[in-house]
Structures are given as structure tokens and as C-alpha cells.
Amino acid sequence: MNQVNLIGNLTRDPELAETSGNVKVCRFAIAVNRDYKDSNGERKTDFFNCVAWRGLGETVAKYMKKGNKIRVTGSIETCTYEDSQGVKRTGVDIVAKDIEFLTAKTVAEDDAASKKLQPINDDSDIPF
User: Fold this and answer.
1) Rounded Cα gap, residues 117 and 98, in angstroms
2) Rounded distance between C-alpha atoms, residue 8 and residue 119, angstroms
């Protein structure tokens, strides 16, 4: 079974793009701290490239930004390619199937969202 569950922080803002077949794809990277310290007492960090497709990718691009904490559940996918010098390379991505945003909204974000709401001007009689 190929399943991975990671919790980390975005290392850059997500990048939303569209394939030639008009499918949305969002690429982002997360930094995940290891749960142990090395012999010097320092905690190491691993960096993972992630991909989210279609609506999930659009949601990540819309609501997440560099530094936000995120949980990504998905699978590991590898690919091989030739770089510009003709050297064979291997790439590894985490393909997201489920994402949870773990950074709480700030008061400023809540205020900005509430300012977008327009009041309803309805003088009709309410039946209750």
C-alpha cells in the first residue's frame, strides 16, 4: 500500500497552473520536522514536493500561503526524466488525496471576510 501522512509548513506560496487538457494542478512544498534529534541535539527537517489536482488544488491555492501548517494525506509518486544536459534524474512527489488546514485564521482575515458581506435591505413583512 502506498500511503503517506505528513504534517508540516508550506515553504513557499502554492502555485496553481492548468494542464493542456484544462485540468487545474497546484504545486507546493512542505517542511516536516523529524520527531527525533541528532547527536548534536538538533532536529532535522525534510522537504517534500506536493501536488494537488482539480478542486483540491484550487482550494489549497486559494487559502494557503507560505508558512501555513498543513496536513497532507496521499501517495508517493516517482518519475524519471532527462535534464537539459541529458542526465537521467528521478523526481518524487506527494500526490495529495486529502488536505487539512492546520493554521487558524487570524482576526484580520475574519474581519476582511466579514467586510465582503453585503447587508440585505428587505423591508417586507416577516411572517414570524
Assistant:
1) 29
2) 39
Burial of 9 from C-beta contacts in 10 A (0-12 / 13-18 / 19+): middle
User: What is the band of 104 on the pLDDT scale with cuts at 50, 70, 90?
Assistant: confident
On whether the CB atoms of residues 67 and 12 are closer than 8 A, the answer is no
pLDDT in tens, 24-36: 999 999 999 999 9
Cα 1 from chain centroid (whole Å): 23
% helix, strand, coil for the chain, step of 5: 15, 50, 35
**Backbone torsions φ then ψ of 109, nearest 5 degrees:** -65, -40
CA distances from 92 to 32, 79, 87 (A): 15, 7, 16
- Following DSSP, what letter does each residue of 41-64 receive, concatenated? SPEEEEEEEEEEEHHHHHHHHHH-
Q: Which residues of 85-100 are buried (b: 16+ CB within 10 A; e: fewer)?
A: eeeeeeeebbebeebe
Res 115: pLDDT: 57
